[in-house]
Specification:
alpha/beta; Metallo-beta-lactamase, Chain A; six-stranded mixed beta sheet; 24% strand; globular; binds zinc ion
C-alpha cells in the first residue's frame, strides 16, 4: 500500500494560466480540473501514467473541457464532482461533509461546499493538501459569478480554518496580479512586501508560485484579512462609506478588486 508521503503533486499547465494538478502515486494518478485533455495526455504519456481518478471543483469550461477525451482514453477513470446537470461523466456526486477514498490511489479527501464563484463549487481537502479550484487564489479569491459576497466570505472562512501548513493548490497562476492589488489594499503589510519580491523572482524563472499554504494566505491575502484595521480602513476609504464589520468589508473589497 502506498501512503501519502509517496504522493507527488505536479502542475500541468493549460491555456494561459490554468494549472491542472496531477496527483501521482507510482504509475497511477488523479488529475484535478482537466480543462484541456491535450497537455494532460502528453504528461501521462511522458511519465507512463494511468489515470484512475478525476476531481472536478466546478463546471466552468476551463476546468472540465478535457473530461470527454480523458474518459475516451481512460474509461475506468472515476469522476468526482458536485453535480450531474452541468458536468458530464460524473460517477460520484459530492457535497459538504462527504469523505472519499480515491479508486486508484490510496488517498482520502474531505469535501467542502464553497459557493461564491459558482453556486455549486466544491473543494477537496486531504493529507496532500487543498484543491480549491477558483475559490481561493494566492493573494486573491475567485470572482463572484453566481454566488453572493456573503457566500464567498463564508467559503473562504471555512478554508482559512484548515491547518496552517495545508498546501493550497489553486487552479490559476494569478499571484502577481493579485499581489499588485493586495499591496494597494495593505501597503503596511511587511510579509506581503517580502512575498511580492519572492513571487517576482519565481515568475521570472517561469516557475509556479503554487502551491501556497494556509499560513501564507492568512498573512498576505486581503480577502482573508478583512478583520485587520489597515484593510478595513483602506477599503472603507476606497468605498467612501462606513463599513460594518468583516462581511461588509469583504463585499466592498471584492467590488474594488472587480474594478481594479
Ligand atoms: Zn471558474
Amino acid at each position: 500500500m502506498m501512503n501519502s508521503s509517496m504522493t507527488e503533486v505536479t502542475p500541468i499547465r493549460a491555456f494561459e494560466d490554468n494549472y491542472i494538478w496531477c496527483i501521482r502515486q507510482g504509475k497511477r494518478c488523479a488529475v484535478v480540473d482537466p480543462g484541456d485533455a491535450k497537455p494532460v495526455l502528453a504528461f501521462l504519456q511522458q511519465h507512463q501514467l494511468t489515470l484512475t481518478d478525476i476531481l472536478i471543483t466546478h463546471h466552468h469550461d476551463d476546468h472540465i473541457g478535457g473530461l470527454s477525451s480523458l474518459k475516451d482514453k481512460f474509461p475506468d477513470a472515476v469522476v468526482y464532482a458536485a453535480n450531474r446537470e452541468r458536468i458530464s461523466h460524473v460517477d460520484h456526486c459530492l457535497s459538504e461533509g462527504d469523505k472519499i477514498t480515491l479508486d486508484g490511489l490510496s488517498l482520502q479527501f474531505e469535501v467542502f461546499d464553497v459557493p461564491g464563484h459558482t453556486r455549486d463549487h466544491i473543494a477537496f481537502f486531504g493529507s496532500v493538501g487543498l484543491f480549491c479550484g477558483d475559490t481561493l487564489f494566492s493573494a486573491g479569491c475567485g470572482r463572484l459569478f453566481e454566488g453572493s459576497a456573503e457566500q464567498m466570505f463564508g467559503s473562504l472562512q471555512k478554508l482559512a480554518k484548515l491547518p496552517a501548513n495545508t498546501k493550497v493548490y489553486c487552479a490559476h497562476e494569478y499571484t502577481l496580479a493579485n499581489l499588485r492589488f493586495a499591496s494597494e489594499v495593505e501597503p503596511g503589510n511587511h510579509q506581503l512586501r517580502d512575498y511580492v519580491s519572492q513571487a517576482k523572482q519565481i515568475r521570472i524563472k517561469d516557475q509556479p508560485t503554487l502551491p501556497s499554504t494556509i499560513a501564507r494566505e492568512l498573512s498576505i491575502n486581503p480577502f482573508l484579512r478583512c478583520d485587520q484595521p489597515e484593510v478595513l480602513q483602506r477599503v472603507a476609504q476606497h468605498a467612501g462609506k462606513v463599513l460594518h464589520g468583516e462581511k461588509d468589508t469583504f463585499a466592498a473589497l471584492r467590488s474594488w478588486k472587480d474594478q481594479f
